[in-house]
Design goal:
Elements lengths: L20 E9 L2 E15 L3 H4 L9 H15 L4 H15 L3 E11 L1 E6 L6 E9 L4 E9 L6 E13 L24 E11 L7 H17 L11 H15 L3 E9 L2 E4 L17 E4 L5 E7 L8
Antiparallel strand pairs: 1-2, 2-3, 3-6, 4-5, 6-7, 7-8, 8-9, 9-12, 10-11
Helix pairs in contact: 4-5
Length: 308
């Protein structure tokens, strides 16, 4: 047992929980089945600190009990969306245990789409067969504090990798003694989108539809019209117009932030092989991982503050 004087220190923050609770939820509606696969993490902050400071476990809700709660609530109430399930878990822990001060739930969804046949004009979706389509990761964080009426709900998209081969430029930036990068009137633009957004208190919204609309806005402002595309004078500008478009289309979002790293593709130098290839032949690029630029911006509505 430690003999150090506890009065000299403050336990500034503390929580505990269960990571990586994996769950596949299946609904069989006749011939048509619906699946959602989630990975859930729970965190509880208790009103007492005696488990840390005195080794007294009498207030601890075991992490195994938290895991079982995830399964039991999914069985009893189902899973509509990661956000709705996070809210359900927050409300349960807060109402069940009086000594819980804060509940934080993190949910990530593995994306399954229905197997489909046919051409684009006549796509037929399979009733009960699915294909894993990891174009990105969907995430949700829900935080509820004691004596607060509504939880804070944060949704997100991670690892959405996109690329376009034209309609991107980067010119007229500072030209000083440190610069070696030339102006680029037409370049490959590729990035990996990492985006999260905070909803207003108790939004009356379909979280699934909101998430799909955010993804649509990201792709639309990156790629543009299917035939002509959309110009991008900089990653910064593309990021800003995307965030603004999302905020315009979904009024229930109070704040959004996005990180866009550059995934560079550098033209391979064939100048020493002029006898073997011509400049007008096919283009070849070298994918370059590091170093890479990274662009970030957070857009808020005026006169609105969201704090966890």
């Amino acid at each position: 047992m430690s003999t150090v004087d506890d009065s000299k220190y403050i336990l500034e923050d503390h929580n505990y929980g269960k990571n990586g609770v994996k769950i596949l939820h299946l609904v069989r509606n006749g011939l048509v089945h619906i699946v959602k696969e989630l990975e859930v993490s729970t965190r509880l902050t208790l009103s007492t600190q005696k488990d840390y400071m005195q080794g007294d476990n009498s207030d601890i809700i075991a992490t195994d009990s938290q895991k079982n709660t995830v399964y039991l609530l999914a069985k009893k109430y189902g899973i509509k969306s990661p956000e709705d399930f996070g809210i359900l878990l927050c409300n349960h822990f807060m109402s069940k245990y009086d000594h819980v001060l804060k509940v934080s739930i993190r949910v990530e969804e593995l994306m399954w789409n229905r197997v489909n046949y046919g051409d684009h004009a006549n796509v037929k979706l399979h009733n009960h067969a699915f294909i894993h389509t990891p174009i990105c990761t969907r995430s949700a964080s829900v935080v509820l504090k004691k004596y607060e009426k509504y939880p804070v709900v944060i949704s997100g998209i991670k690892n959405l990798r996109v690329l376009k081969t034209t309609k991107s430029s980067f010119v007229n930036f500072i030209n000083d003694e440190y610069r070696t990068l030339p102006d680029a009137d037409d370049r490959i633009f590729s990035t990996i989108v990492d985006c999260s957004w905070i909803f207003c208190a108790n939004p009356q919204i379909d979280y699934d539809k909101a998430w799909e609309l955010v993804k649509y806005c990201i792709l639309q402002n990156f790629a543009g019209d299917l035939d002509q595309g959309i110009p991008s004078p900089s990653v910064q500008n593309t990021l800003y117009i995307t965030e603004k478009d999302i905020m315009e289309k979904i009024q229930e979002i109070n704040s959004i932030e996005m990180t866009l790293p550059n995934k560079h593709y550098i033209s391979v130098d064939f100048s020493k092989f002029k006898s073997l290839v011509r400049d007008d032949e096919q283009n070849v690029y070298l994918p370059l991982d590091m170093p890479s630029g990274v662009i970030y911006a957070k857009l808020d509505r005026k006169n609105i503050t969201n704090k966890l």
